Prior knowledge:
The complex is a heterodimer of chains A (672) and B (163). Chain A has helices at 3-24, 27-53, 77-100, 110-125, 132-150, 158-188, 193-198, 203-221, 229-236, 239-249, 251-264, 270-293, 297-324, 328-363, 374-377, 379-392, 399-412, 420-452, 459-462, 469-487, 493-504, 528-552, 577-587, 589-592, 622-645, 650-671; strands at 58-62, 71-75, 511-512, 517-519, 525-526, 595-602, 610-618.
Amino acid sequence: xxxxxxxxxxxxxxxxxxxxxxxxxxxxxxxxxxxxxxxxxxxxxxxxxxxxxxxxxxxxxxxxxxxxxxxxxxxxxxxxxxxxxxxxxxxxxxxxxxxxxxxxxxxxxxxxxxxxxxxxxxxxxxxxxxxxxxxxxxxxxxxxxxxxxxxxxxxxxxxxxxxxxxxxxxxxxxxxxxxxxxxxxxxxxxxxxxxxxxxxxxxxxxxxxxxxxxxxxxxxxxxxxxxxxxxxxxxxxxxxxxxxxxxxxxxxxxxxxxxxxxxxxxxxxxxxxxxxxxxxxxxxxxxxxxxxxxxxxxxxxxxxxxxxxxxxxxxxxxxxxxxxxxxxxxxxxxxxxxxxxxxxxxxxxxxxxxxxxxxxxxxxxxxxxxxxxxxxxxxxxxxxxxxxxxxxxxxxxxxxxxxxxxxxxxxxxxxxxxxxxxxxxxxxxxxxxxxxxxxxxxxxxxxxxxxxxxxxxxxxxxxxxxxxxxxxxxxxxxxxxxxxxxxxxxxxxxxxxxxxxxxxxxxxxxxxxxxxxxxxxxxxxxxxxxxxxxxxxxxxxxxxxxxxxxxxxxxxxxxxxxxxxxxxxxxxxxxxxxxxxxxxxxxxxxxxxxxxxxxxxxxxxxxxxxxxxxxxxxxxxxxxxxxxxxxxxxxxxxxxxxxxxxxxxxxxxxxxxxxxxxxxxxxxxxxx
Amino acid sequence: xxxxxxxxxxxxxxxxxxxxxxxxxxxxxxxxxxxxxxxxxxxxxxxxxxxxxxxxxxxxxxxxxxxxxxxxxxxxxxxxxxxxxxxxxxxxxxxxxxxxxxxxxxxxxxxxxxxxxxxxxxxxxxxxxxxxxxxxxxxxxxxxxxxxxxxxxxxxxxxxxxx
Lengths: 672, 163
C-alpha cells in the first residue's frame, strides 16, 4: 500500500464521513462540515494524482465488494492526470462552498449535501477504475449524485426541474451507450482492463465499440449534438456545484475516450479519430457562437465549456489521426496539447464559475443585461474574473494560450504525417481553432465589460457587496494556479509526457525546456514567460509615455460630459450583452437562427397611430430545436399508444398473456 | 460601375471652384492666431429660417470650397475650435447653445452668421425668441446679411484662418 493507495482510502473515508456529517449535523454546521470533507476528498485525490504523475502506480483488487467481478482499481499517469485535475478543482470547490453557504445561499438540505461528498469521491475514483464493472458503477454513481446536486434548487425555480429532466435523460442515454460498448467489448475479453488490452477484436466490432463508447463519453463532455443538457444543468446548478460539474466532471468524458480509444483499443482506425476531430470542431464553433450571443452569465460560461471540450476533442482526434498515420511524435504532441487544455480549462473555468457565483450571490442575478458597475463594488471578484477571462480568450499572457498554441503547432506541422484526408482536415481544423479563439475574445470582452464595468443597470447590481473571505481565498488559489500555468507551463513537461506515454504506449517526450517550450521534432519554441514580460513592458511603456505627454499639457479643466445636448446619459444607454453581440449574431444569422418577435399595437381610432411596440428576441439552441423537439414529439406519440394497449380491460390483459405464452411455446417448439 | 462613372464625371466637369482672392493681411480675431491656420467649426442652428444654412452649405461646396483655406465643419463641439451660430436664439435653444459653447475647447471662438444671429433681426422681440447670440454666449466675429453671401462668409472664415 503506497501513497496513492492511502490517498484512495482517504477519498473513500472522507466521503463516508462527509455523508454522515451531512445527514446528522445541525443545519448551521452542515455546509461547513460537508465543504471541509469535499475539500479533503479533493486534496487526497490531488496528492494521489500527483504521485502517480511522478511515476508512482497502484493496483488493487477487492473481490468482495462487487459481485462476480469485484472492484478493480489501478492508477497510472493517465488516470493520475485526471485525478489531479479533478482533485484540485474539488478542493477549491469545497472551500468555495463553505464561503458560499449561509443566508439562504447554496444547497442546505440533508440529501443534497450528502450527495456532494459522494459525487466528489465518484468523480475522483472514475479515472482509477481498472475494470468494466467498476467503471460503470462509479460512472453511474457520479451521474446519479450529480443529478441530485443539479436539482438542489428545484423548489426555487421551475427551470431547474427542466434542466434536471434534460440532464437525467441524456446522461442515462450516454450511460446506456457506454454500457453497451464496454459490455460488448468485455464479452470477448474479460472484465479487467488488462484483459481488454490483451484482446484483439475484429475491426468492425472495434469500430462499433468505439462509436458507442465515444457517444456515451461525448455526451458527458457536452459534444454537439449531445450537449443540450450542459448549458441548462451547469447554469441552474448551485454555483459550487457548477464549478465541480464544468471544471471536473466534463473532463471525464475526455478521459473515457482517451482511455478506451488509445489505451484499451490501441489506437484503431483513422476514421474513428476523424469523427472525433469533426465533432470536436463542430462543438468548439457551435459552443462559442452560442456563448457569444448568450446574455445569461452562467449559460455563457457553460457554452464556453462546450467550446473548450470541443477543442480538447479536436486535439484528441488529431492525435488519433497522427497515431493511425504512423506519426507518434505528432500524436504525442497533439494529445499533450489536449491534456494540457483539460487542465487549463479546469483552472480558468472553475475561476470564472466561482466569480459568476459570487456575482449571483451578491446580486441575485445571472443576467448580464441587469448587471454592470461591479468593478467599484466587487473589485477583487472583478479582478479574478478578469484573470479567468484572460485564460479563456487564448491570448498571451493567459493560460489557455499555451495549450492552444501547442494544439495549433501539432495541426500546422501535420502535413507530412498523412494522406489527402489529413492534408484537408488539418488546415480546416487550424481555421476552426483560430475562429474559435477570435469569437472567444468577443465573448469574454462582453462578459467582463458588460457584466462588471460601466454603470449598474439595476438596483441589485448597485447594492452588491464583496464576497466573504473563504470564497475570495478559493478564487485566489485558482487565479494563482492559472498564473503559474500561464507563465511556467514547462514545469508540467515530464508529468504530461508520462500521461501521454500511458495512453499511447510510445515514450515520446513531446514538450520540454524550462523558460521556453521546446517541441520534440518541431523547430518551434515559445516562451510564455518572455511573452508575458514583453506584454507587460509594452503596456507599462505605453502608459508611461502617455503619462509623460499628459504632464506637458499646461492646463487641464474639468468639464461636463458632452451628451449631444440631450441631457445626462442614463445606465440604459450603455451597451448591453444583447446589443454588444448583435453584429456577431447578424454575421452568423444562418447558423444561430434567432427568433425576433415584433408586436405593433395601433391606436383604436387609427391604424396609422401606434400605441405600443413590443420587441422580443430569443436565440434558442438550434440543435435542441431541430433535433430534439421532433424526437420528443415522436416519443410522445409513441407514449399515446400506451392507453390504447392498456385500457384497463382484464380480458385484454388475459389475452395478452395467452397470446404471449402460446407464441413463446410455438417459437420454442419450432426452434428446437 | 459607379467608380468609372464618377471618374468620367470628374474628367468632364473639371474644376469649378472660384479663383481664390488674395489672402487677408492677417487674422481678424486675435484668439484665432494660435490655431495656426486651421479652424475646425461646429455649426449650431439656434433657430434659423435655414436661409443661412443654405449659404453655409454652398460655402463648403465645390464652388466656394472653404476647406482650401483651412476651415472645416466637424460633427461635434468636442472636435471644434469655433462655433458658427445662425438664427435668433430661440428659448428652446438657449440652454443647448450655452452647453455646446461650454463643450468647445479653448480658445472658444463664436462666429455669428446672419442678421438674426447678430441682433435677432426680423424676429427681435418675438415671443419665442430669447435674443441675439451675444445675449447667450460671447461673440467674436459678427457677419450681418439676410442671408450673408457665400463670398462674405468665406471672407469671414479666411479672416479666422489667416490664409
